[in-house]
Amino acid sequence: MSGREKEEWVYVEQRKGVNGLDMVILREPRGCSVEVYLYGAQVTSWKNERREELLFVSNKAVFKPPKAIRGGIPICFPQVGTHGNLEQHGFARNRLWSIDPDPPQMATSSSNKAFVDLLLKPSEEDSKIWPHRYEFRLRVALGAGGELMLTSRIRNTNTDGKPFTFTFAYHTYFAVTDISEVRVEGLETLDYLDNLKDKQRFTEQGDAITFESEVDKVYLSTPTKIAVLDHERKRTFELRKDGLPDAVVWNPWDKKAKAIPDFGHDEYKRMLCVEAACVEKPITLRPGEEWKGRQELSAVPSSYCSGQLDPSKVLVGG
């Protein structure tokens, strides 16, 4: 690619998506791309240099407010799960965000030209169900190596002196070839809360997490790096996180999938949610305080030897 062509390369493009919803496309010259909707500030596509889709979005997903989009990376805020009078997983994922007119100064390398800054502030309607003032800034960035980075900054802007408390998750739907051939590494021996057993606390016993039935677990005090191994495609997703101590692992399996209206009956076989989250110990911000939570995703080739991941091919470096 010549210098002139590089100058003309479109790293960030605004356009209309499904049902006329506003979206932003991020690109890098090798062919990787990311699509993010202003509705929900939701990433709905992440493709590698071979244009292979790395995120799962249901064929039955409803791209129409107020329904949240089923798949991609919904943002759960100000709560994960269902509590009180707030809707499940909070309201950030089905509100219309704006392009941030005053984005924060974040350290970005000169090669990272593909990013968008989005902003959510409370509406009068939201204040009735969650009576707090806040600014939620999200940067979605596509790295030069095809990695997808999401950085959230949430600030308490209450003028009444009151703190607020919230839980949070990047509800990431990974696209996998066959869920029965997937394993997750990095969560073994850890404690978890089992949402299918009234949030009882257990300790993970397996060498790695594999899947043969419905799972909905919140792993606690997790490492900063987690690996999702797609054995069929010989691909490993690396999830790196900061400011998010927990990790949610979810797959509805066959019975639950049939009960979800915007989810295909057999689609559970081709997806797995592994979510960087803060669930067990909610975050409290006093007025003027800011919280930051970051997730970085990358996809690398993986190879097996005697059923084990080649350690030289995954989670290399810091």
Automatic annotation (TrEMBL):
Keywords: Isomerase
Highest taxon, organism lineage: Eukaryota
Positions annotated to bind substrate: 70, 88, 93
EC number(s) from the headed UniProt entry: 5.1.3.15
Active site (record annotation): 171, 275
Entry-linked Gene3D superfamilies: 2.70.98.10
Swiss-Prot/TrEMBL catalytic activity: alpha-D-glucose 6-phosphate = beta-D-glucose 6-phosphate
One Pfam family per UniProt: Aldose_epim
UniProt-listed SUPFAM superfamilies: Galactose mutarotase-like
Family membership: Belongs to the glucose-6-phosphate 1-epimerase family.
Protein name in the entry: glucose-6-phosphate 1-epimerase
Species the sequence originates in: Ziziphus jujuba (Chinese jujube)
